[in-house]
Design a protein that fits this description.
about 85% helix, mainly alpha
């Protein structure tokens, strides 16, 4: 079986483009992601404090 030498280059380009797209999405939506995580953590803390009061 023969694999074309350029296959590695094509795979690298596809992986690099995918990584760039994922990084771009994370950077664009970083504020919303942080707010969502903070809301989840606040909710978890609220649940814990209600359990300790009982």
């Amino acid at each position: 079986m023969y694999i074309d030498p350029n296959t590695g280059g094509v795979l690298f380009q596809a992986l690099a483009a995918s990584l760039a797209a994922i990084t771009g999405v994370l950077l664009i939506f970083s504020r919303q992601i942080r707010q969502f995580v903070a809301r989840l953590r606040r909710g978890a803390r609220k649940d814990e404090s209600e359990e300790t009061k009982e």
